[in-house]
From TrEMBL, chains A, B:
Membrane-spanning residues: none
Domain of life: Bacteria
Stretches assigned to the Non-reducing end beta-L-arabinofuranosidase-like GH127 catalytic domain: 30-402
Stored InterPro entries: 6-hairpin_glycosidase_sf, Beta-AFase-like, Beta-AFase-like_GH127_C, Beta-AFase-like_GH127_cat, Beta-AFase-like_GH127_middle
Residues of the Non-reducing end beta-L-arabinofuranosidase-like GH127 C-terminal domain: 511-623
Coiled coil: none
Domain Non-reducing end beta-L-arabinofuranosidase-like GH127 middle: 413-507
Pfam families: Beta-AFase-like_GH127_cat, Glyco_hydro127C, Glyco_hydro127M
Protein name as catalogued: Glycoside hydrolase family 127 protein
Any one Gene Ontology BP term: carbohydrate metabolic process
Amino acid sequence: MTVEPTIEDAPVVDTTRSPHARLRPVGVAAVRVHDRFWSPRLDRNRDETIPTQYQQCQSTGALTNFRRAGGLVDGEPFHGLYFSDSDVYKWVEAASWSLAGRPDAELDRTLDETIALFAAAQDDDGYLNTYFSVDRVAERWTDLAVRHEMYCIGHLTQAAIAHARTTGKRTLLDVALRACEHVFARFTPDQVPGTCGHPCLEMALVELYRTTRDGRWLRLATWQLDSRGRGVLNGSEYLLDHAPLREQTYVTGHAVRALYLYAAAADVVLETGDEQLRAVVDRLWRDLAQHKTAVTGGVGARWDGEAFGDPYELPDRAYNETCAAIAAIFFAWRLLLLTGDGQYRDAIETALYNGVLPGLALSGTEFFYQNPLADAGRHRRKPWFTCACCPPNVARLLASLPGYLYTTSDDGLWVHLYVGSDADVHLADGTHARVEVRTALPWDGEVEIELTPDEPTEFTLFLPRPGWAGDVTVRLGEDVIEPDTAQGYLTLRRTWRAGDRVRLRFALPTRLIAAHPRVASTHFRVALTRGPLVYCVEQVDHPDVDVADIRLTGTERWTPTFTEALGGVVALTADARAVVPDDGPLYRPYEPGAVPTQPATVTAIPYYAWANREPGPMRVFLPVLPR
Amino acid sequence: MTVEPTIEDAPVVDTTRSPHARLRPVGVAAVRVHDRFWSPRLDRNRDETIPTQYQQCQSTGALTNFRRAGGLVDGEPFHGLYFSDSDVYKWVEAASWSLAGRPDAELDRTLDETIALFAAAQDDDGYLNTYFSVDRVAERWTDLAVRHEMYCIGHLTQAAIAHARTTGKRTLLDVALRACEHVFARFTPDQVPGTCGHPCLEMALVELYRTTRDGRWLRLATWQLDSRGRGVLNGSEYLLDHAPLREQTYVTGHAVRALYLYAAAADVVLETGDEQLRAVVDRLWRDLAQHKTAVTGGVGARWDGEAFGDPYELPDRAYNETCAAIAAIFFAWRLLLLTGDGQYRDAIETALYNGVLPGLALSGTEFFYQNPLADAGRHRRKPWFTCACCPPNVARLLASLPGYLYTTSDDGLWVHLYVGSDADVHLADGTHARVEVRTALPWDGEVEIELTPDEPTEFTLFLPRPGWAGDVTVRLGEDVIEPDTAQGYLTLRRTWRAGDRVRLRFALPTRLIAAHPRVASTHFRVALTRGPLVYCVEQVDHPDVDVADIRLTGTERWTPTFTEALGGVVALTADARAVVPDDGPLYRPYEPGAVPTQPATVTAIPYYAWANREPGPMRVFLPVLPR
């Protein structure tokens, strides 16, 4: 059948025609970011990260694998891990999003060349996985639990959709369609159960359905979800095969896999309204948000297996894989599109600033795989990894970030993240409007939103009232107004005219955040936050005190100071206390009452910026002295 | 050369002729345990654990591997991991120690048969490793870092020494000697650097030197220690190859490997007095004891790599491999033999009761590999593991435990662990004496020591004054005396006559133990201890309160009550508090002051006994409310 890619404004998750979505996308190509905080990051992503990652795909042999599979080189062994194809696919996706609204002939050509390699490597029957080409053809589809074949096709498909949406070309989409046809034929819905040890294809298939309107892809995605709990993956709980997905009641297993799976379930709900799956994603979200998310939005506490821990298992040395924070954003974004509920927006914002950004060095070319909340100084970012999932995942998320800033709905226009930008949107009645956000967040709490509808139009403007916000002053023009708040959004309904401005002033106090009393590891400890940012202390800022000795009283006054260091951050400083260095034994009888402390000046920096200076201990949670 | 095994009283670490040892062993065969706490455990080890483990060695194919290597079976594949030989060797060691002073014709015959399999599997050149027999001969000695070949020969040698010492037979010792000759020829001291990714052989070689007085084995052991830091193991810090051992300054890497290595270094010091190595073991011990040991004596905090963490990284969900606690005992025992310093004794006692015993179910037939300090109810013991290092390690330690109770020295007789038992000892002047300890520890603090020298003899009786002991009342006959304490031992010097009795009364208060202020994870939390035992709370004892909600005030009165449950334990009960169940968000603004609590009766049981009833949450550290 003939399909035409949706190009228009290059949505990331295209709920334009999703019957159960409350929100409809404003795509990457419709948004221009001009933000003090984000523009340098998005520019660096395009100018440094994406080119460097292409070189990594070259030097690791991941690209050579396609040449080898396509018969373009002889005598090469396979390079890397069995899912190394996905590194390249994620890079293609990142590069494609980066083209949105910003032509780059050279990158476009590199993409065409790379896609030609994929096409060359693809078998006549549509199968594509370079690990199983040449000398492992007989092993294809023999180990769904481990071998990531569908996972790789998932990333291929996501890359293809991004490429089609941002370039209008269907070269890669054709490759992906052939691969998905192969999967459909091999694991046909209602006939042959099939699902992958590492979810990814499910989400991609729903998006392929949205792109092509071919209902087979939605059926296949749903079939893959419903193939779980049938032993295809050996019943492994770690692989989310311990029960039918519709009966799963708690977040478990490998964090990225779990969240990709849940995100796909939300995708299906957006399309079908499936009430049973809706209940599943709701309860899994609650378990995630209430029991298994770090204060940074990082998820997947365990180093063993990159897995979720038990409820309230939120240790200092959390694993918090960068990819898992990204996966949590994928899940939350779909639930936000479904509901317009600000709890999901809050989670996205927290994870973006504090769960994903720390995964990236300020240079844009080194990465964290794990994001612990405390460290002794040996955890440092690296340019690449043997298992290189995180770096291109960060790149693709940042490249598509403009697509997460705005949506529309039947009743209006939504801003989701306060990022300096403007966008062209089409309201429900078809009216075109331009919306611009001006802000110095996360450093300063002033936000201005200017609306320019082509003609005066009545609609609701939905503006985030983040969970971190205390008082907010809202002005419409010069008038202070008191709009309603619904589900975490300020709702301003009126007939908007060109030039209308809303100005918000959020207070940005430094806050001490405590965890639920059942979180044992942070008992009587707090994290510092300001606005959407979680802070940490680094040894390099404390020449006279070991950061492990820092104690807060809870009454100190924190002074925010903008500094050009670390790419420009607001640092927080206070006169706090430090335990007098103690050379006593490791264990001793408990003595009630205050431990001896002395004055100490404490400086905190945003957690995302840690480990960009000289190595040393770091802590997010700081002990509080009892009053 | 001809060597004769030392049999006499079957010492575990035979420092009888070690010039730098302060203490000399009283062997396993010289001691008879008749202790309310320990006798059932040692009996169960002999009657349940050791026979069951032999069946495991049968059913896993570990024994078949030897038949296969010896050409006694055809067409069998290799079974298990590449170090599965060591499972069998450790079983042989355990079975051998269990024969000490207690003949068992059937077990003796099973040992003979098993040893015959080893002999059959051994190559003409002395090489013995069934993984590298038959189809992997060409791979021998090609990967010292990973393949555990020397490690297996180490366990073979330790088993051989135990077997020789307890049976007087040299069948297995001959096998081990041939294997060690092979290693000596292949990695000759001062010629070919060689050391194993998993230490073990080093300790065994020193013991082989002690057994045979052949100086080559001490040279080879020292050479293996000094082969580290030379790149043989790729410079890996995880494998302790990051620096010459003599320059290593901190405890690091895989916990069991590290501690086996350090124990071997202590062994060399015992024989040579090497001052440089002595400084190394001293500083590594300090780092271990002051920064990297759980309150239970468990070590190796990290699940990733079964490794040591950074200083003060002592989380609730510690890995604390059962084998690592055993390895810590090996290290500490050698330092105790070197010095007579009670800090090592204290560490042995803590690790034995709280680091090793929890690794064993009360049934004696299920095991923990990891020993976390908190759990949500899913961590349960198993009969065996794919990597089955821990179960036979527990078995061999318990079988040899009588050898850890007493020593002698130039100046006297030492009791190290208060375990109901009697022993035949030879004092420095050759006088034979019988010593008997009667006690109901760890439940009750009364201890009676009765001495029966063949003739009145002047010597010092050294009796532990444990770190956990507060006041102790000492009676000699009916007289209260006040003996000196030196390095954690009460020292009673006099001319002892047959029938002299010393009676001790230790107070056994319930204590709240806090960790050093730099241990972030236990800030404002305490562990309960009583005598040598660390306690924990289990959900099964708290039908009305979630154990995560328990809060102590630090002023509650703990009532010890002996119960027949759990094989007979003293449980501790107190009227404490519990946080009122909180359905608030996972993170919230910190509020100073007390959280709402309500009364709660709390019951604690010894940590070693956890997970023997219905599954449920468990915690060692409990939060304390500030006063």
